[in-house]
Amino acid sequence: MHDVRIIYQYTGRQTLALIKPDAISKAGEIIEIINKAGFTITKLKMMMLSRKEALDFHVDHQSRPFYNELIQFITTGPVIAMEILRDDAICEWKRLLGPANSGVARTDASGSIRALFGTDGIRNAAHGPDSFASAAREMELFFPSSGGCGPANTAKFTNCTCCIVKPHAVSEGLLGKILMAIRDAGFEISAMQMFNMDRVNVEEFYEVYKGVVTEYHDMVTEMYSGPCVAMEIQQNDATKTFREFCGPADPEIARHLRPGTLRAIFGKTKIQNAVHCTDLPEDGLLELINYLSSSDV
């Protein structure tokens, strides 16, 4: 009965999208493709699979000759697991992926994800389940319906700062572009997770601004209006350098003074300015521990 309930829960409009270790550096491009295809990302987490989790994930392939290589590969680095949503999600995601062998994909589906970012039949950039039953089983592994955390996140909590992509930017499909911009600026995204904040959490988060900035209440409302994506950003002197890359809080000012910054490119107003970044190193660590340790994805 438990399996039937899970299959029913994931029937129809949801499927798992998994970015494999070989394509983590292309996560922005892949997420951009997902958004442009009409999918909504409803859950997201960068994870590191243990050997046991990899065995559970690839249980359907245990009789295949490439099984051991598959297990070894999927545990070599982080993966990004997502729940993606749209009509006929399983078939549409498989269509975007293309044939399992990246060489075949380059011949038969040259615009597919595996053709663009994969290498061969093992290192093929991304994964999607073939059926409702597989989708249900795999979603349970990465995002347990019991409320558990699933595989461990990849946060290092050292030499880092926190970036939060705000709800308006997530809902507008800007996440992929923001990830690409961060990568191209030389920063490493070492952990990432989608989460939701409630009003009480946001008021506590923005407490320092209460009574100080006139936009306080609008800032609070924006941050709990939808899902956010928290990221651990690593680089030398990460807090200072990343804050500079985000630019002034007001996107209009940013476009005049720092046109290449995240807020200049992706921000709309002082409230909807695309990203939050940490001002102080100690605050960044606290924010990361809070949001990347949460099971609310």
From TrEMBL:
Supply one GO molecular-function term: nucleoside diphosphate kinase activity
Which classification does the entry list for the species? Eukaryota, Metazoa, Chordata, Craniata, Vertebrata
Give the family from UniProt. Answer: Belongs to the NDK family.
> Among its keywords, does the record have DNA-binding?
no
Q: Which organism is it from?
A: Aotus nancymaae (Ma's night monkey)
Name of this chain's protein: Nucleoside diphosphate kinase homolog 7
Q: Which SUPFAM superfamilies match?
A: Nucleoside diphosphate kinase, NDK (SSF54919)
Fetch the CDD domains from UniProt. Answer: NDPk7A (cd04415), NDPk7B (cd04412)
Indicate the principal place this protein occupies in or around the cell: other
In terms of Pfam families, this protein maps to: NDK
